[in-house]
Design goal:
Chains A, B: One of its GO terms (molecular function) is metal ion binding. The structure is a homodimer. Chain A is mainly alpha-helical. Chain A has helices at about 25-35, 40-45, 50-60, 65-75, 80-85, 90-95, 100-110, 110-120, 125-130, 135-145, 155, 170-180, 205-210, 215-220, 235-245, 265-280, 295-320, 325-330, 330-360, 365-400, 400-430, 435-465; strands at about 165, 190-195, 200-205, 230, 250, 260-265.
Amino acid sequence: MSEETDLAVPPARGTEPERDPIEVPGFVEAVAGAVATSDVGALRELVADLHESDLARLLEALPGEDRPRLVELLGPDFDFTALTELDETARLQILEALSTRTVVEGLRELESDDAVYILEDLDEADKQQILAYLPTPERAALQRSLDYPEASAGRRMQTEFIALPPFWTVGQTLDYIGETEGLPETFFEVFVVDPTYRHSGSVPLDRLIRTRRNVKLGEVVTPDRHVVQATDDQEDVARVFERYNLISAPVVDEGGRLVGVLTVDDIVDVIQEEADEDLKALGGVAGDEELSDSFWYIARSRFSWLLLNLIAANIASFVISLFEGELQKMVALAVLMPIVASQGGNAGTQTMTVAVRALATRELRASNARRIVMRELLVGLFNGVVFAVIMAAVVFARFGLADLGYVIGLAMIINLVAAALGGILIPLGLDRLKVDPAVSSGPFVTTVTDVVGFFAFLGIASLWF
Amino acid sequence: MSEETDLAVPPARGTEPERDPIEVPGFVEAVAGAVATSDVGALRELVADLHESDLARLLEALPGEDRPRLVELLGPDFDFTALTELDETARLQILEALSTRTVVEGLRELESDDAVYILEDLDEADKQQILAYLPTPERAALQRSLDYPEASAGRRMQTEFIALPPFWTVGQTLDYIGETEGLPETFFEVFVVDPTYRHSGSVPLDRLIRTRRNVKLGEVVTPDRHVVQATDDQEDVARVFERYNLISAPVVDEGGRLVGVLTVDDIVDVIQEEADEDLKALGGVAGDEELSDSFWYIARSRFSWLLLNLIAANIASFVISLFEGELQKMVALAVLMPIVASQGGNAGTQTMTVAVRALATRELRASNARRIVMRELLVGLFNGVVFAVIMAAVVFARFGLADLGYVIGLAMIINLVAAALGGILIPLGLDRLKVDPAVSSGPFVTTVTDVVGFFAFLGIASLWF
């Protein structure tokens, strides 16, 4: 890194606020102009200082056909790391338009985890074609990562790391780091391994600097409390990083041999993705839906969830049709029934949201499930009674019928209790059946609250009047 | 740290899976037993090896009254860092039950950011009482952090860091780190400051080790691309960390003077909290609702959102009452009308979920809003037509009335287009009015889809028949 040094002390930043280069007026237009006229010089000047993430956001701001053109025009000046910051749809669209040669050259400049991230979503034929053009050692390393299951630690890990034997001294280690070319670009620790490469612990750089030069690594190493298996699911790994505030963790294979290192910046993306998926799933949207997806893709993906909802709505409608006689006799029932169903649907969604999130973060466990179910039940009962009183009063004021007020009040209590039970038991049950509760709970919960709501209100009315 | 060294190389971990100590059967019960009998020896043995995060989860698993007792029994052996890993409700409950002396002693062992995190939620009187017992330099440092606005970078930053002048050599720096007591426990870089403490850049430890000893820090320092202002909101800072994959960033005051450092492990919590709040808000739950909250707190907090929904449901009910005559004439309308409203509500929620999330992650900006609105409109129109055809067929099969099929189909198209528009324009509008769209969009969107759904279906029916 010392080539990058600058003899002058850079100016203090002072109160200068962080500016977003992409949002500077005219910037995106200027880039698009340079791409249109193939003005490589102007283009280089415009994007030279951009961070890879800004470069990615610039690509997203450009029209689809300009994106691969920009990459080809910049040639070796285009940092392929930027592609890892794009959403999948945009990344694949660019990769498909690029020549294999450009992709191969670009991938060779990347750290292994970034290269795997770009390669893994390509279809098998493209992937093999690109791998075939890579030198054998690079190909073998990438292929090994790609052989791990999708979304596993092995796919996310960086295979560049420093591993040394325990009999090396701190002084040797510092000299080795100082003199060796081709070490990882950034690293936070050295790992200690035995002759068969089995991982035994790590020494953080700050501890290395604080230890006397003649001390052996074996004396200063501490076992890593959190060792990741290459086959571990990335979400489980993210949970461990988050829980124990880790900056990095070693990755080992089945034999305990060190095969890579995971750093928190990769994990931040996993945490974000996971929260994103849960949030979208609860809103009835596919986890992989992205802002840059096409109309057609989105329409189809939303359709399937709405179809499920349509079936649920038709079941609820069937329940209503059982009481056609009552509805005919008293039209006020038709006017009021959606209130009971809607209030139940919303209360159920509240409970379900809390349950789904607590299951995702592992806060809701077998050991506290009973307490939470009881609490939700009480909340449902309490709010049921409060809203029963309110609606009874509203109905009396609006229709002058005290009996109708009692009926809606009773139905409200029943449906809010059903909503609480459905809202917590359905996610718990799905989780036990190994079905993702975030994705599947919604339609079940609203079916319960619609059916119970209409059935309780119209049923009690048919008995009462 | 060298006191912790161990001469033997620790055993390789091999394929041993990561175990969760809290979930070991009988563990929580054993701890509760030791607390009940005030058996300090047994207690120390049980919790000695626990990571602070596991200690926190152990506290959460214990009955409320045992939690402060455990802290008092362990005395100086209790690591107060564990309190930062608790949710706010549980943390405050424990702190209120502890003696001021215990809290003061505990806080003195913490890094500044953890101490601030614990202090900031206490009420002013308790906070001042505790601060009064701290030695002046510690009190001043904490008070300075506490003076920054809530949820700002100044509150989250660590005030322990290494800052050196540019004329120091790398060798001097390494020796200083090696010989000085009381440096931060872990650090990843040294910062370079001018005589007035204005920040000019940083040197990561790996670069420090890779540079020759006689080189001056001023020659090897690079300006930090991302300097955080102490008054910056933590969510904006989290966005920058995430976007640029930062591990740490310097924090400066208005004068550009270095006042602290933010590390990614604090930011991971901010990212998680933020996603959590959005998810809960969309489900109609207060962002600060926690699994350990009391029945009473939750019932009240859920009530207010349900009350809003009740008002919306009553507006929809009023719309229905406008068509009492039609409902009397044709009871099938009452049976079918919830389907139109429900389908609109779900389609609206889909669009709203995507819009709220994209606003939160800044992916939805003024520059692409128009394209997204158009796309959602098309999706709504497309799915509206598809579901119109499906429902027309269902209605014809169920009631044998072709006209009723046309009516429900037309209403379905209108409501799904309204849902798309409401789902995207309401969050965009709220965001422009500086109202959090995650919290407030839901009731508005479902009011739109209920009102439009009932009005379109019953209105068209009244014109048609």
